[in-house]
Amino acid sequence: MQVASSPHLSRESCSTRRMMLDVLIALTPPFLFAVWLFGWYAVYQVGLCVLTCLVSEYVFTWMRGKRPTLGDFSAVITGMILGLSLPWSAPWYVPVFGSMVAIGLGKVAYGGLGFNIFNPAMVGRAFVMLSFATAMGSGAYLATSEADYPSIVTQPTPMMQLKSGAGAEMSETTAWQAMLLGKRNGSLGEVSVLAILLGGTYLVVRRTASWRVVLGMLGTVFGLGMMSSVACCPIQSGAIYLLSGAVLFGAFFIATDPVTNPVTPWGQWIFGIGTGALTMLIRVFSGYPEGVMFAVLIMNALVPMINNGTIPKAFGAVPPTGAK
């Protein structure tokens, strides 16, 4: 028997490039649906984000004297997620500046992929959200190719309806078919629940996304959504909070970023539950109708502490002298 030195097992499917390809494949259904619903605007927003992210990655890594790593597709994924989190009506400078900040401040400034503590796409989106708040509003969209679309897509987003006090009318103004199939307004990647579930399920099956983070976040949002309307259809209220806005997209594609996630199983549960709780806290009590972006960034900052607090004790380990 021959015994070689470690590593004893090599899996090409665990490489960075393979994982990024999995995310790219999973993002395809939401992107294609956005193209079908919003047409050229979806291609324009996502394409501009991806192109700017690639150029920024090359320029910023070159400025630091490092070799550009465009081949791992991480910059493409950042551009895709950022583009799909933007409204169709955002002017050109929103995706351009958002992508530059996402790569420059959210990734390269920390040393590149694997060293960043915040999700780069959410860093870029937070910047444009705070800098260009008016431009980030989901303006009414008129789809003239379908006779029944103008009365649906031109409505306010479901989260804006909830925030404006129209939550009691959600069952009438927003049909469940519109929630599932995406016949509603919102950011490019969040409108179709079925498209998100299709891509997200692929990520979980491939084990690229942590199911603990996904389940923890979605379960918390649903539970707190039910509690927010106990007197009037709590299950329906929880479902509306779960299916509206960027919760599903954020749970599968943003909160599960392996670089900015805890590495322990219990830590992933804490991260998912904390992200869901902060999302609902921001949605209900703040002036913002959506809270996924800020919730993810806040929990990203807590990941080192979560990791340190959830590291399992090694079997048979002897505590150091003087330790209690």
Explain how this protein is built:
The protein is mainly alpha-helical and 324 residues long. It is 59% helix and 0% strand. The chain is built from 15 helices and no strands.
List keywords for this structure.
324 residues, mainly alpha, globular
In a few lines, what is going on in this structure?
This protein has 324 residues and is an all-alpha fold. Helix content is 59%, strand content 0%.
Structural class: mainly alpha
Strand fraction equals under 5%
**Major sheet, described briefly?**
none
Q: Give the distance, in angstroms, between the N- and C-terminal Cα atoms.
A: 44 Å
H and E string:
HHHHHHHHHHHHHHH
Helix content: 55-70%
Number of helices: 15
Average per-residue pLDDT, rounded, comes to 82
Radius of gyration: 21 Å
Instruction: Name the quaternary structure.
Output: single chain
Shape field: globular
Ranges where pLDDT stays below 50 over 5 or more residues in a row are: 5-9, 147-152, 166-174
Give me the count of strands: 0
Write the layout of secondary structure elements.
Layout: H1 16-38, H2 40-63, H3 74-84, H4 93-104, H5 120-131, H6 150-153, H7 158-163, H8 170-173, H9 176-181, H10 193-205, H11 211-227, H12 234-243, H13 247-254, H14 265-285, H15 292-310
Helix pairs in contact: 1-2, 1-3, 1-10, 2-3, 2-4, 3-4, 3-5, 4-5, 5-15, 10-13, 11-12, 11-13, 11-14, 14-15
